[in-house]
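User: Need the bound-state model for protoporphyrin IX containing FE:
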Amino acid sequence: MKTLIGNRSAVTLILIASALILSFLFWLIYFRETPVEGSSLNLTILPPLNALLNLMSATCLIFGFKAIRRGNRVRHKKMMLSALLFSFLFLVSYLTYHAFHGDTLFQGEGWVRPLYFFILISHIILSVVVLPLILTTVFFAATGNFTIHPKIARITLPLWMYISVTGVLVYLMLYQL
Ligand code: HEM
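Assistant: Bound-state model below.
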């Protein structure tokens, strides 16, 4: 009973923290005047770096999943925490690029346009959903609750994977097509 209440409070706190973080990020990305002073900086390295960080994250998720299916808990933990680090670094790098450079408009015409926006919008919506899911999944792993951890993690993992892979696709469609 005590643990259940403890878990409920922790999940409530995670939801509140996620809502605050996401509101701040949305303000930063969509409502703040951009770009800030210093936009003459050479930022061309950041978009491919962002795509690489997403790719690293997706790769760690695959290896982390394989590890736990083989019963290797230590490797699973290392891979999942690495995926978390790569996604965090992506967020920092993305915000830096956005702050100094502003939006990049999609130039494609024809059938590729609705496809691009479907990928981009689903990527953004699922990113909002996945933040509290990742924090909750890590919370149950960190507190040693391996009954609830896998149950939530089985939802978190495919969503996180989708976000990382579509992050790479958005980059390729914006800069390489
Ligand atoms: C957000 C990051 C994480 C994700 C997405 C994740 C994902 C998963 C998934 C999908 C499973 C179930 C695998 C199956 O279907 O058989 C699982 C199980 C497990 N995870 Fe994680 N995991 C994460 C973080 C961690 C961390 C940090 C630890 C270590 C403290 C950990 C320890 C475990 C263990 C021990 C199991 C096996 C539980 C059992 O069935 O006995 N996980 N995880």
